[in-house]
# Entry
Amino acid sequence: MTHAGRFGPGDRTAAPPRGVLPRAWSWWVDGARDGVTNMAADQALLETVRPGHGTWRWYGWERPTVSFGRNERLAGRIDADTVAQAALAAVRRPTGGRALLHWRELTYSVTMPLDEALPWRAAYAAVNQLLLLMLHRLHVPAVLAGGGAPVAPEGPVCFEEPASGEITVAGRKLVGSAVWRQGGAYLQHGSILLHDDQSLLRALTPHAPPPPPAASLAHWCPTRSDGDLTHDAHAALQGLLTEAAGPDGDMAPFVPDAAFDRALARQRAHFADSAWLWRR
# Structure
C-alpha cells in the first residue's frame, strides 16, 4: 500500500524551499535518549546557533515519554503520580503545543538563524515543506492542513487536532511539530509517527473521550521495516537539505564544541527541574 501512483512527476521532483533556510548545515543522527537530554540538546542547539548555519538532528527515546508544551496547563489535570501510574516518563518542551507521546517515531529538530524581521511562520513553512517533500519521496500521500485557527495550549492532545500548515494523510495528522523563537534563532522539532502510540496518553486522562487514530508511516508503507523507513527518511531529507543549500552550500556531520557542551549541561539541569515540568 505504498500509493506511489498518486503522485505525478511534479510531486516527486519538486524543488525544496530556499531563501529562509541557511546554506550551511550540520547533520546529526543521534541515538535514543531520555526526555530531559533530548529537550536539553535541542535548547542547547538553539542557544549556540551560528550565523548562516543550521543543524538538523534526528533522535529517539529510551522509553515511552510524554512531552508537554511550554505553556500547557497541567494543574488540576495531570500530576507526577498520574504519569508514574501510566508507566511513562515526562518532560516539558521548550516549545509550545500540547501533550505528545514519544515512542515509535522519527523525531527531528531544526535549529537555525532567523532574521528578526522575518515572521516565524516563514521558517515553519520552509521546514514543513522539506518534511512534506521527504514524505513524498517515501511515496506517502501527505498534504499540508489548511485554514483553521491556531491551536491553543490547552485542549486535545497534539495528534488529535491538526493546526494550519501541519502535515496530514487522509485527514489524519502524521507529523506533530512545535516551535520556539529566541532572538535571532529558531527551533522547530517534532514527531513523524512510525506507529500510532498516542493511545498511551489515555492513561493520563481516563475520563476524556479517546482521540481519533493518527496517521503512521507503518500504515502507509506496510511492506517496509521501521529500520528501512528510518534510513530512507534520513537519506531523503539529507538530499533535500543539500538541494536547498545549492551549489555553494555545505553539509557536514555535527561536532559538539565547548559552547554546546556548556549549554547542554546547563539545560539538562533546567529540564530535569520539577519546577519547570510542573510550572503551571
Q: What stands out?
A: The longest helix spans residues 226-245.
